[in-house]
Each structure stands twice: as structure tokens, then as C-alpha cells.
């Protein structure tokens, strides 16, 4: 028994020592960036991103190319054709050389996007870790375009420091990258914002909201057809208060019981990603400008990476921003009890409408953090937004 107790005490001391070391490292911006973005975890080491056929795509269905970053570096991107449009132009597409292209404007796929005045472009903001070809992102691209397989193109890219993109990730830098990609879509590809839908998953939701708020605040304001947010988080401070590495090792959650200490540790957070504030600013800008907007927020109940109560916080901040008097959290929850649609095993849906916009909260019971991206709920969200964007908004 003595040997066992000594072993336990040593193991506990080692664990506490490692945990204290982790906390110390987390106060440094460089280590924070690695933990938050996980950009060095490629997840596609044994596949060449310049050969998209290795990821299940048809020959030249995907065009790999670079978009210039604000600092002159490279942002690696894929332009993905919807499958029915590909079928219609298959011979012309496979006749072109495969792989990375220096000048995408010379390619058939690009011309199909630019010259079709009914084409829609989904700009995809992915989550932490990996590249454009990692994990469930490939099924996600198919789900995004499945609703209109001759019209919905997908543009996805790696933030700076991810995959083949130059640089080191930071909140400011990633937002610059995303705006550069949106500018490319509007100015080079010639797709107007009314035919652009912005999609984000996990940390990509924070990027989506930052970009949407940025353009909505311009003079004149620019508002896209809509945005889909999958598994968002309120802000980084709230996220780390619940997050555990691999669902086991907590980061700051043990300190939540000590508010003063927890708030002190939060002062070391460099990239804050204040999504709850950005969504409110986005809504207020559109309501003030009388611009039509459409937001869908999707979060699986069984997501253990980012608990779905983050979406409830995001949804409340969005709804609260629609009214001049505001609505407190308890009032909204009471309203949701009366207006929520219960879909049995599929979960629930709550929709909030104003004269200008639609804010939709979808909480499916299953889907985890990543699997959900390839599910039909994603296809329906895109179809619903594009239908609303193409017709007068019914309040």
C-alpha cells in the first residue's frame, strides 16, 4: 500500500508539474497560436494537395491555385466545381493539364464561375488544424453544393501558416486573409456579394463573423446572401473555460471557480475572437442600414469539442441586437419555448425574424463536431438561405 501511495503521489506531482508548465507556456503568444490554431498538424501528410483526385474528386473538378495575401504572400486555395456543372463540361475540363495552376483565370472552371450570372459561390472558412483537404472537409464541400449541383461553386483556402499558405496565424492576420479571399471572389471572379454565401465551422465561424461584420460596416455596406455557422464559440475566453484537450486535459476550466484568478489568466489571451460581440455588431449594422441578411447557426448536442451552449449565447447576442430595447437571456429562452420547432430525433429549430433579417438556430441531436459537416442539414441550410436571398423577405 505504501508503494502504491508513493506512486500515486509521484504521478500526481508530475501531472501538476506538467500542467503548471502548460499554463506557463500558454501565457506566451507563440505557444498560444500553436494550441489555438493547431496549424502544424497537417492531417494530409501522405497526400499531395495539388492532386485533389487523391481526395475523391473528379479530374480537374478542383483547381488548386494561390491568392495573394495582403502582405504579398501566398494563400493556397481550391476552387471546386459542382458535380452537375462538371458533367456538362467534362470533356473540356479533362482536356486541361491537371494540378496546381499559376493563372486560374485561364481555366475553364474559372470561366464557368465568372460567366454564369446565376452561379453562387460558397466561401468556406475551415476550423483549426489540417488543410483544405483534411478530415470531414471534403464531404463538407459536397454537402455545400448538393442542393444546386449545377450552380453552387465552393472556394476554400488555408489561412496563413496552414498547409501551403505562407506566414504565421494570428487573429488579425487570418481576418486579413479572409478579406483578401472575399475581395478576390468579388473583384477577380466577378461574383457579386448577393451571390456569395460565407460558411464557417469551429474557428472558421469566428472568421466568418469577422468578415461579415467588416463588410457590413463599410460605406456603402456590403452584405452577402447569407452565412452558415457550424459549431461556433462565444469567444476564446469562454471556450477555454470549458475546453479540454482530447476531452480529457482541461485548460482553464479548473480556475472557473476562482473568478479573479480566471480573469487574470484571461488577460494573457492574445487572440480573443469575440464572436458574440461581432455577431451583434453585424446585426446592428444591417438593421440600421435596412439591409437584408440571413444567418443560420448549427450546433450538434453531442459536440464535446465545443459545447452547444455556445450557440445559445451566440444566438442570444444576435437576437438582442435586433431590438432597440434589447431582450434579456431569460426572456429569449421563454420565447423559444413557445416558438421552437421540435423535430424528434432530428433535434430542434428556432427562428427569429425581423423586417430585415432571419436568424435561425438549429440544434440537431447528433453530428459531433466534424461529422455534421457532411450531413444533409448543411445542404438544407445553404438551399434555404439562397432561396431567401432570391426572394423578398417575409417578416
From TrEMBL:
It comes from the Eukaryota. It comes from Heterodermia speciosa. Signal peptide: none annotated. Pfam families: Abhydrolase_6. This is AB hydrolase-1 domain-containing protein. Residues 122-272 form the AB hydrolase-1 domain. InterPro entries: AB_hydrolase_1, AB_hydrolase_fold.
Amino acid at each position: 500500500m505504501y508503494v502504491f501511495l508513493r506512486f500515486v503521489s509521484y504521478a500526481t506531482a508530475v501531472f501538476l508539474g506538467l500542467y503548471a508548465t502548460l499554463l506557463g507556456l500558454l501565457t506566451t503568444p507563440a505557444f498560444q497560436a500553436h494550441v489555438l490554431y493547431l496549424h502544424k498538424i497537417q492531417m494530409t501528410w501522405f497526400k499531395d494537395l495539388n492532386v485533389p483526385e487523391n481526395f475523391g474528386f473528379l479530374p480537374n473538378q478542383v483547381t488548386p491555385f494561390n491568392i495573394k495575401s495582403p502582405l504579398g504572400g501566398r494563400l493556397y486555395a481550391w476552387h471546386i466545381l459542382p458535380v452537375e456543372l462538371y458533367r456538362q463540361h467534362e470533356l473540356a475540363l479533362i482536356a486541361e493539364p491537371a494540378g496546381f495552376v499559376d493563372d486560374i483565370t485561364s481555366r475553364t472552371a474559372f470561366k464557368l464561375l465568372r460567366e454564369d450570372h446565376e452561379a453562387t459561390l460558397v466561401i468556406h472558412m475551415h476550423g483549426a488544424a489540417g488543410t483544405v483537404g483534411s478530415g470531414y472537409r471534403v464531404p463538407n464541400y459536397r454537402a455545400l453544393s448538393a442542393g444546386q449541383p449545377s450552380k453552387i461553386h465552393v472556394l476554400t483556402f488555408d489561412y496563413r501558416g496552414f498547409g501551403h499558405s505562407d506566414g504565421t496565424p494570428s487573429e488579425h492576420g487570418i481576418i486579413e486573409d479572409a478579406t483578401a479571399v472575399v475581395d478576390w471572389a468579388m473583384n477577380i471572379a466577378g461574383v457579386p456579394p448577393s451571390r456569395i454565401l460565407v460558411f464557417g465551422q469551429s474557428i472558421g465561424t469566428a472568421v466568418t463573423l469577422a468578415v461579415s461584420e467588416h463588410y457590413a460596416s463599410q460605406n456603402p455596406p456590403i452584405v452577402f446572401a447569407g452565412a452558415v455557422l457550424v459549431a461556433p464559440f462565444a469567444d476564446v475566453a469562454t471556450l477555454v473555460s470549458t475546453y479540454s484537450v482530447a476531452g480529457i486535459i482541461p485548460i482553464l476550466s479548473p480556475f472557473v471557480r476562482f473568478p479573479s484568478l480566471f480573469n487574470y489568466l484571461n488577460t494573457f489571451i492574445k487572440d480573443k475572437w469575440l464572436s458574440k460581440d461581432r455577431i451583434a455588431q453585424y446585426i446592428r449594422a444591417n438593421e440600421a442600414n435596412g439591409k437584408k441578411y440571413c444567418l443560420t447557426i448549427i450546433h450538434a448536442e453531442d459536440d464535446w469539442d465545443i459545447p452547444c451552449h455556445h450557440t445559445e449565447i451566440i444566438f442570444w447576442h444576435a437576437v438582442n441586437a435586433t431590438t432597440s430595447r434589447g431582450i434579456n437571456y431569460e426572456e429569449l429562452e421563454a420565447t423559444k419555448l413557445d416558438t421552437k420547432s421540435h423535430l424528434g430525433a432530428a433535434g430542434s429549430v428556432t427562428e427569429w425574424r425581423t423586417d430585415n433579417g432571419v436568424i435561425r438556430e438549429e440544434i440537431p441531436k447528433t453530428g459531433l463536431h466534424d461529422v455534421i459537416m457532411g450531413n444533409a442539414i448543411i445542404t438544407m441550410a445553404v438551399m434555404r438561405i439562397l432561396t431567401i436571398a432570391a426572394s423578398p423577405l417575409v417578416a
